[in-house]
Amino acid sequence: MTQQAYDEVIDTPPGEEGYERGLGSRQIQMIAIGGAIGTGLFLGAGTAISKAGPSLILSYAVAGVVIFAIMRALGELLTYRPVSGSFAEYAREFLGPFAGYVTGWTYWLFWVVTGMAETTAAAVYVKYWAPGIPQWASALTFLVVLYCANLISVKLFGEIEFWFSMVKVTAIIGMILIGIGVLTLGFGSPAAETASVTHLWQDGGYFPEGIGATVMTLQIVMFAYLGVELVGVTAGESEDPARTLPRAINTLPWRIALFYVGALVIILSLVPWTEFSPGVSPFVEAFGRVGIPAAAGIVNFVVLTAALSSCNSGMYSTGRMLRDLALRGQAPNGFTALNRRRTPAVAITVSTVLMGAGVVLNYVVPARAFEYITSVATVCGLWTWAVILVCQIRYRAAWRSGRLPAPGFKAPGGSWTSWAALAFLVAVVVLIALDEGSRISLYVFPVWALFLVAGYQVLKRRNPAAVLAAGAPAGPEPQVRAESGS
């Protein structure tokens, strides 16, 4: 790719990347909501409750504040320059070409391995109703259906994601309303005699396992929020990003308060924390205690939609990120192709094939080897969040020095909030290193880093223009480009 070709890409005004701006406010809002509700809440919370008790509520609240700080930092960058390859684009501009290269490929890898895991998980959930269906057949069916939907149009992707999110939201709100009814009116439920908010402090106190145990759950809690930044990838295809994206980000606090904190308060009031077990969904336990006979089936269906939602989001984001890398000459040029419906068909196809390979790997290699692959996703997510924060700090410095225009959606606390969030992410990495079960992700990521460094060196030799054109920290020249594209 020549420097002139790169300039043409950079100077293209928002909305002219070739994509269809087919995501409306309703869909963006639900994508933002769905990104904050995943299998980490429906399944993973059981393990965290058994480790920390009611104090897990505090962990989710604290982590939620940090996530909001990250998303407001992203909001500043999105209103400054709403592009589809947002994280990689900002890294190129504010941190340099290598950072953009690493961020683009790392976020792509994050969703590929997440798609591998979630497709396999969805096939396992189907066995609850149809144990006779081979796992590979269910996984393949899900992949093909979601793949076709992503190729047809971004509007169909948005609509599918809207209804997946609606299922998750409805389930949690229903659980909360039923729980409130049992706690206040009894509702003729078997749980009414023992349900009480005193369970939050009665069984060993609010910190029954000590404050240290509560702190250690922060790593589990942060992983439950992975994917919340997906709304940033939709910037290039949102009908009105300047209006819809800030609105979606600003609703994040109440979403966290309701779907995480609120749901856990109700669940832990219905059932004492000592009765939850690792690996068992707290929603199944609470629904069952209330006396709903189909509790396990309901939660299984909700978790199935959560897994499919994650896989759907993975196909969407990997296609856009891979095409963005190709546009910069950092991936094969064939990935730049759009089909007649203006979706990155080739990039989506390659990413989907790799997700499907995960299903095969799950059969032909030991479970431990597959765990090594999927564990990369956790550190990839932390890397992306850290890049967002550092880019916002650099952008603020450029804005204050007059080199870039002021943001239209300023983050509260400015750079100080981002520095605090960065410190929190560093603390989470330390917690990962201290925990034997999750430490594996820190072993796997350096291997990925070596691949990236080697690939970058090859790229520098074969296509130096692509590296030089990849962007640079904000300065006078980027200011001209930003203004011409606004």
Structure characterization notes:
With 486 residues, the chain is mostly helical. The chain has a single domain (3-481), classed as Amino acid/polyamine transporter I. Helix content is 71%, strand content 0%. Mean pLDDT is 80; it is low at 1-16 and 470-486.
The residue-averaged pLDDT reads 80
Number of strands: 0
Sheet/helix structural class:
mainly alpha
In percent, how much strand structure appears in the residues?
Answer: under 5%
The figure for the number of domains is: 1
Give the helix tally: 23
Q: Which percent range fits the helix content?
A: over 70%
Measured between the Cα atoms of the first and last residue, the distance is: 24 Å
Topology, element by element:
Elements: H1 3-10, H2 25-35, H3 39-42, H4 44-52, H5 56-80, H6 86-95, H7 97-126, H8 135-152, H9 154-185, H10 199-202, H11 211-216, H12 218-224, H13 241-250, H14 252-270, H15 282-290, H16 295-327, H17 345-364, H18 367-374, H19 376-400, H20 414-434, H21 440-462, H22 464-468, H23 476-484
Keywords: Amino-acid transport, Cell membrane, Membrane, Transmembrane, Transmembrane helix, Transport
GO biological process, one term: transmembrane transport
InterPro entries: AA-permease/SLC12A_dom, Amino_acid_permease_CS
